[in-house]
Amino acid sequence: MRLFLQMLALLPLPLLHGAGLLLGWAIYFSPGRHRARMRRQIRQSGLCQGVACGRLTCRAVAEMGKTLTELPALWFRPYLSTLALVREVRGREVLDAALAEGRGAVLMSPHIGAFELTSLCYGARGPITALYKPHRRAWINELQRAGRERGGVRMMPASAPGVRAIYKALKRGEAVGILPDQVASKGEGAWAPFFGRPAYTPVLPLTLAQKTGAPLILGVAERLSWGRGYVIHVSRLPAPGNDLAAAAATLNRAIEEAVRRFPAQYFWSYNRYKRPGGAPPPEGAA
User: Whole-prediction pTM value?
Assistant: First the structure.
């Protein structure tokens, strides 16, 4: 499988994205809940109405497929060739200023555009320890790590040893990477509004910032049309206060703002609103 993906990585990005358009529609019409969930979450977001929601859904289906078919280029091209796909980093000075404080940085990449690219791009300038959820199939897990651990990127499982590793990285003044819009596990999140609905939001990046003083940085990898590459947008979020629920709400508002900028590139088929086993109901949360 790895050899096959390495061969796909040689294809031009426009061709990979063209295949992604077809794959997106194949997934959309396949059995399962992807289609209904995507349409429902787009409609409930309030970003569109009527026919406009249909147009946004069509664009989102194509972008969903591109997210998958671009992975060979991001993971298995020569590292410098992958980095060359990044046409611009807007807000680089924000990141530079944050790192100059000497407390590391918590880099957060929501499910928008080529979110796999942000840590790879950062890994060209310095070490970054990123958390990931290991796949239950060993061969897929091996491919994930091989594609993501390049440059200065070190992947750690989202577990107690992984959390200890990112605390140590911050103490060394290094960066850490976290997906801020995954559904948190039991006891590791707080209910906070996301497009008007309660979402069980990870509080780990917030507690990291509270305990270490590390700045919170949001990175979004915009996918350019016609396979022209990517633009990474960097912004700094305010330091979280003591109220984790309020801080989670602020985090979600920042992600909402990014989604509004690139609505078609958000991964709308992801079940952002599910309640993990053992988590309190939204109305019972503090």
Answer: 0.94
